[in-house]
Design a protein that fits this description.
The chain has 306 residues and is mostly helical. Helices cover 63% and strands 2% of the residues.
Length: 306
């Protein structure tokens, strides 16, 4: 199915009316074809991770059947990223050491790296930089979860990896308009990225990412991260934690200069989010200082998009 351009998707709106940004996002994702699916083994691992009755043996069989993924898991478990003592030589032992959630994150990261290979589109945009920023946000969110004692560190890491997945949808689903957007932003440092997206794409990477997350069958909490990480305080407190962690992590990655940071351009870190998480400025300064090293380590084990 050919992907309609943003202009075509918006053609049905009368002059002077506002496009339905959520509808444009749904139509764009619906036209993505193969990109809108995850590898079978990743989907199977996701289901096992969400199944309270799943066994380590079942997960181990999946890893044994995919030697590349199994090798990646062993590389991660033996890396400084987790800092576990001793050397692990089997995937079964890795599952015991890491747990189902961490194995799920490794599998999803392996799938995501292949999607951030669109190359350099403008002087300031390279898809590999978006992936590095995603890894930086993931690592910052993981550290913030531990520091604030809010939420699961593994869930925060996955949320960070996925928060800007909508940019990949824009690259694939409305490439001409996306390049126009990037070119316009080259000469306007003060522009708010989401405003420019609405103008050129008829939707935003937040809505595109949320729609793709739902299409992939991810929990509603992860779709909410994609949609609300720029403004988490609009959410009820019962579903706010992950978007709040990613909001702060996004800004820490900008402070550290990690990857493509233009999506946060024109925005400020919401002090209400920082306060709600129980964090202090000294916490943010400390984590920003260690983030470049932490990101470099995370890139080595979560997968580089080169």
């Amino acid at each position: 199915m050919p992907v309609a351009s943003a202009n075509e998707l918006n053609a049905g709106f009368t002059s002077g009316s506002m496009p339905d940004h959520a509808l444009v996002a749904r139509q764009t994702v619906a036209g993505l074809g193969q990109l809108a699916t995850l590898p079978t083994v990743t989907l199977q691992i996701m289901r096992l991770a969400d199944d309270p009755h799943a066994t380590g043996d079942a997960l181990d069989r999946l890893l044994v059947a995919d030697p590349t993924l199994g090798a990646r898991v062993l590389r991660v478990v033996n890396s400084a990223f987790y800092g576990l003592p001793g050397t692990v030589t089997t995937t079964g032992a890795a599952i015991v050491r890491l747990g189902f959630a961490a194995i799920r994150n490794i599998a999803i990261a392996a799938s995501l790296t292949r999607m951030f290979r669109g190359g350099r589109l403008t002087l300031t945009f390279d898809a590999k930089d978006v992936w590095r920023h995603s890894v930086a946000v993931a690592e910052a969110a993981r550290l913030l979860a531990r520091r604030s004692k809010r939420g699961s560190a593994d869930e925060a890491l996955l949320a960070g990896l996925l928060h800007d997945i909508g940019i990949v949808v824009a690259m694939q689903g409305c490439r001409p308009e996306f390049e126009q957007l990037l070119n316009a932003l080259e000469f306007n440092d003060e522009a708010i990225y989401a405003d420019a997206e609405r103008e050129y794409l008829g939707t935003t990477h937040a809505l595109l990412g949320a729609e793709l997350s739902r299409r992939w069958g991810f929990p509603a909490t992860l779709a909410s991260v994609a949609e609300h990480h720029h403004a988490p305080m609009v959410l009820d407190v019962s579903v706010r934690t992950l978007p709040a962690l990613v909001h702060v992590a996004d800004h820490l990655a900008v402070r550290a200069g990690e990857g493509y940071t233009r999506t946060v351009g024109g925005e400020t870190l919401d002090p209400a989010v920082v306060a709600w998480l129980g964090l202090k400025e000294s916490d943010l300064e400390e984590l920003t200082a260690i983030l470049p090293t932490a990101t470099a380590e995370a890139m080595q084990v979560l997968g580089d998009s080169n």
